[in-house]
Specification:
This protein is an alpha+beta fold. It contains eleven helices and twelve strands. The strands form three sheets. The protein has a seven-stranded mixed β-sheet with strand order 3-7-8-12-11-10-9. A three-stranded antiparallel β-sheet has the order 4-6-5. A two-stranded antiparallel sheet has the order 1-2. Strand 10 and strand 11 form a beta hairpin. Helix 2 packs across helix 10. It comes from Stappia albiluteola. GO terms for molecular function: ligase activity. It is an enzyme of class 6 (ligase). Keywords: Ligase.
């Protein structure tokens, strides 16, 4: 049994996670959710004084905005869309027959105009764009969303349905870059306060296909993405628990978000993988939060 499966089975046995029969789709216990809530409160407190507003998004976004984001073009292997029955009485009879005979009934499903949200910041950009030019000094938004990525795995830190807590900076290039650098520093301070082993490294998104390899190499070369890595199920391949991203003006151009001077806005974000950070805490400090180190408990419980 490998380390991923062993840790996952332990979480099941202790009732911290509950299996569904599908890898990467789990119910969370009250203990698990309490740790997430306390970590979120901690991170929200760190950024409260510089946050202009906060939003929480549902796990779905419009298909139009999903396509505008470029996600389907760059990461088709991870994407999920929402389909539903849209037929008439005749189609319903055919559906019932398929269900009764064990045949595939999904052929009668049609697209609904919704996609599953792949990254917490994506639904924000069209909202900002509809407001017109940015305020002087740009905008900083705290947000949270459930996200979906189709990568079933026995690794408990690689869930298909998971939550991201993010701060997003929308403004000039200098403002976006400074924001990212500030949160890279804060990210290390957070992990030190939580007494978790960690290091930051340059990274790239999992772009698909031959062209994707070139895009990933370019992303790394320009140092547009960094990740906070923490060993959870492997010391050799630690898990990305935070990411620090500078998108240049890609989203500004895609959604026509403008600075006060009329130039396309630049964006940056810091993302916290809430389930992954909780799993890291459970892995390194034990499955009973009441027994965690005093310093960690002071940070999260006060």
């Amino acid at each position: 049994m490998d380390a991923q499966t062993s840790f996952l089975d332990t979480l099941f046995d202790r009732g911290i996670l509950h299996e569904s029969g599908v890898d990467g789709l789990y119910a969370r216990s009250a203990l698990f959710e309490d740790v997430i809530r306390r970590f979120e409160d901690y991170v929200i407190g760190l950024g409260r004084d510089e946050t202009d507003e906060a939003m929480v998004f549902p796990p779905g976004m419009t298909m139009a905005d999903f396509e505008t984001s470029g996600y389907m073009k760059n990461f088709p292997q991870l994407a999920g869309t929402v389909h539903a029955f849209c037929g008439d009485t005749h189609d319903h009879m055919a559906l019932l027959e398929c269900l009764a005979t064990g045949k595939d009934w999904t052929d009668g499903q049609k697209r609904t105009g919704l996609a599953l949200t792949p990254a917490a910041c994506y639904p924000l950009y069209p909202i900002v764009a509809r407001r017109g030019a940015l305020p002087e000094g740009g905008l900083t938004v705290a947000l949270q969303s459930y996200c979906f990525r189709h990568e079933p795995s026995k690794d408990p830190a690689r869930m298909q349905m998971f939550r991201q807590r993010e701060y997003v900076r929308v403004g000039s290039a200098d403002e976006a870059i400074a924001f990212r650098e500030t949160w890279k520093r804060r990210g290390s301070e957070i992990m030190t306060a939580l007494e978790l082993p960690h290091h930051v490294d340059v990274a790239n998104d999992p772009f698909f296909g031959r062209a994707g390899k070139m895009m990933g190499a370019s992303q790394r070369e320009q140092e547009l993405k960094f990740e906070m890595l923490v060993p959870i199920t492997s010391s050799d391949k630690p898990t990305a628990c935070m990411s620090f991203n500078y998108h240049q003006d890609n989203f500004g151009k895609a959604w026509n978000i403008r600075q006060r001077n009329g130039e396309p806005a630049h964006t940056a974000c810091v993302g916290f993988g809430l389930e992954r950070i909780t799993l890291a805490l459970l892995r390194h400090h034990g499955l009973e939060p009441a027994e965690w180190p005093d310093g960690v408990r002071k940070v999260l419980w006060g």
